[in-house]
Design a protein that fits this description.
The chain is α+β, with helices and mostly antiparallel strands and about 250 residues long. The protein is about 40% helix and about 20% strand. β1 and β2 form a beta hairpin.
Length: about 250
Amino acid sequence: QQAALFGQTCFRAGEAKNTYGTGCFLLANTGERPAPARGGLLTTVAWDIGDGLRYALEGSAFITGAAVQWLRDGLGIIAEAGETEALAKSLRGNDGVYLVPAFTGLGAPHWDMYARGLLIGIERGTSRAHVARATLEAVAYQTRDLVEAMREAGQRIDVLRADGGGTVNTFLMQFQADVLGLPVEVAAVRETTALGAAYLAGLGVGLWRSRDELRSRRAVAARYEPRMSVDEREHLYRDWQRAVERARGWAGG
């Protein structure tokens, strides 16, 4: 994940990226001094390329894209991951349906090994579109959990840089911007982990001379601006938090 942070050219303190894969991994550059690990986050080394250590705060959500795989392989309600976008967009809202994909417990900021998956709010009219939408929304809500933990730790994030396979889903990216109330910038190169490793190797052999040169190469495929009202955003997030509380501790008896 540090390579992805570098690949996203998050070279300044406060710049942050989120990788959307089987899980979600949010890292924020905290500069030359390690930030205290608070709110369920981890303090980690970002990189050292000869001009001193750089540090980051890290938060990980275990099950995000893996929940979409579960829709396909476990429930059989989609044939491929891309179907979730059209299903989610076919609804005007989530109609109160939430999925907490705590299939292996909950990661940051909750760290609850006894939490288990929960699908709540279903009614007679609930369809596979609701389940697909709830699955995508859960990715965005878990990312907001991480961003909120960053804020509590004193780390301000103004723009979220996004990469990974999940960024191809336009519903997810727009909903992410909406539920965060922040712009989301999708990297033109989705595999920024590999790109970051290449950048570090290139700096090492002199192919590129500086981080400024790498920053000039950064390309954004799409930028999503928040469009949701504050009232709606906070209402949705409060209901997500209620659902999470119901999922916690289930396997612990």
